[in-house]
Write a structure and sequence with these properties.
The complex is a heterodimer of chains A (123) and B (707). By secondary structure, chain A is of the alpha/beta class. Chain A contains five helices and five strands. Chain B has five domains: 149 residues, no CATH class; 107 residues, PAS domain (Beta-Lactamase); 70 residues; 139 residues, Histidine kinase-like ATPase, C-terminal domain (Heat Shock Protein 90, 2-Layer Sandwich); 218 residues, Nucleotidyltransferase, domain 5 (2-Layer Sandwich), CATH 3.30.420. Classes of the chains: A alpha/beta (123), B alpha+beta (707).
Amino acid sequence: MKKSVLVVDDEPNIVLSLEFLMKQAGFDVRVAHDGDEALAAVKERIPDLILLDLMIPKRDGYDVCQRIRSNPDWKDIRVIMLTAKGREIDREKGMALGADEYVTKPFSTRELTERVKELLGAG
Amino acid sequence: MFFNWSFRIRIALFFALIGLAIPAIVSGAMWAIVQGISEGHDPGGLVFIWGGGAAFVLVALVTGIGVLFDINVAAPIQGLIRDLETVTHANPEHTVDVDAGKHLGGLPSVARDTAETMARTQRNVNALIAEATKASEEQKGRLEAVLRDLHQGVVICNLNHEVLLYNGRALAILHVAGDLGLGRSLFTLVNRQPFFHALERLTNRLTDGRHKTHKDGLAASFVCATRDGRYILQCRMSLILDQAETATGYVITFEDQTEELAALGRRDRLMRAALEETRRPVANLRAAAETLASNPEMNEHFRASFADVIFAESKALGDRLDSLSKEYQEIITGHWPMADVYSANLLNCVVRRLRDKEGIESVITGLPQWLHGDSHTLVELLDRIIHRAWDHVDVSAFDLEVTADTNHMNLDVVWKGEPIPSGTLDSWLDGTLDEGLGGLTARDVLEHHKTQLWSQAVAGGMARIRLPLPLPRDLASVTRPKLPPRPEFYDFGLLQPRASLRALGETSLHDLRYVVFDTETTGLQPSQGDEIISIAGVRIVNGRLLTGESFSELVHPGKAIPKGSTRFHGITDGMIADKPSIEVILPRFHEYVSDAVLVAHNAAFDMKFLGLKEDAAGVHFDNPVLDTLLLSVFVHDHKEQHTLDACAERFGIRIQGRHTALGDSLVTAEIFLRMIELLEARGINTLDDAIQASNEIVEVRARQEEF
């Protein structure tokens, strides 16, 4: 079965690239544009991995990540935080709240795709 | 001497004359009476005439002498008294009349000489006073000139916060129209909290003697606001000490920070905006470009979309960069005052505030650490956050602890229950803090410390809010001097079953209550007169080191402290001069310990000292005792070094501060806490197990020593 990726970002320009890249890599891709939508999407169907922007409307990425981690049913979801917050302390906070990876924008699409594949065990 | 002698002779002769005149007159009268009787006159008449005559002559004689005495003695003395009074109280230059008292021997001339000497002294004193006044006027003039020309406002206050001296710049900075008014309370002008806080910190530093080694000595920087909250001032407080090293007042220097802080805030926002707002478009650009490049087979529709993205993003990016650089040039930079802060002092302020305000029970645990920050705003931030957390999680007991990692000092607020959702925690950061801080928000405080905070679950059903703070700047001043360790002591009797052991022996090491303690002594030979000069202890309850409930006392040893030992403990004769003796302190310590298990590093040494004083103090320590040195040998048998410093290093415990009884107790406690885990891994679960393991080590060590 295809692995599924949930892209959470409110910026259509990056969503375009991410959606395309993930589809190209052979994943089933869904998109959410804010924190509430993201949680609703997870509830609807559990994704294998979430590309999570931190600065999104309604509920920030930290909050979304923490909520996902607090539900034992969702413990297998991999979370990659994608963010313009570049300070070391922001990364520490992200990791403390349960992210598997913290990627600072701008990033290399090739490296990101590789990292996603690695986390999903799809080599 | 001659005068004195001749004066006394004269007085003596005078009285001798009186003494001779009286019998002469009386016997003359009696002779005349007898004569008269022998001539046949009437005896009654004779007695009347001669007796009365003699009495009259006696009265005349006494009167005459009295008058002479008055003229020659009493009156001149009275005159001298008046002269001397004039000299003393009115006119030092008044001349003492010598002639009137010529029968008083040397008295008038001595009085005159004395008066003249006094007048001369007075003239000298007056001259000196005039000179000193002139010098101090000059100094005052210079001080005033310096104060007037200072860029900072300066205000000097006594400990009642009454203004004693100030400069014109202070008026301008504090925005006082007219006069500040000497003797007026400083707090009619500025918000009081930050001053109380700074004064408390400095007073504690002085009491602990830490100012001698502290980088800022007896000064502290902080931020305050004027009473109306309109201006933010950067302040620096320095304590003023008298000769007995007691604080009598303080000097405050003020700098108006309103503009600088506003500029700083703008700069920070701009920097953040620049970094974050450019990352996003750059990311979008890069992703779009790479995708285009690596997918040449892409259909026309997608290709057009990507081209649009690249065009729109690069244009927006260019525009944003332009406006950022323009804004940046308008900002004048400043700095936010930060200092190295001792976590125990910081957290104590928080604990006291929470207790006073709402009765929230917070407990300081773990080793105190140095960190870098602005103490006052941090206290405000923690007060706010813990308050909200208390509302939110419905728990009223919080532990406060600071732990070190490689990049930060993590300040943790820990409670039993669920963590706080990130969004909720985030929403607490936007309200303004104390009005004394001029509209500063919790988020601003985080930004100034370049940090974040978050809440997460931790082991054992606990949760925490973590606030990472900068590492101390001046690590050199808080590192510990390297000193040779105490020799190891062994005592079989110590680890034999004690009366109280039976009840506790089966209890798990985790569940016991401990008092970890240390003593400082005048030397290493308790049986040869060395004495305890300091004793301290800390509690461990349920695996938490309760830093806030420590015991720490200096003790008068009843003798001088050997100079050589001072480099080990830093205690001097001056510091213990007014301290109670061990007979007073030991019962207090006994009460503090109660029925807890005693723990010490090289415990036999400390227990020996305690034991020797038990009778005199009227207490007996029969508590079970554990020795971290022996336990260290047990869990790290392959290691050679088991000194306190070596053990701390092995467990990665960062030791700050010098060797004090309290400092070493804290380190020992932290080591002991880590050891409990290792002991359990080796099957040592109960107190009995731990004591048995220790006994084995004592036997092995004792045997080794025999060889």
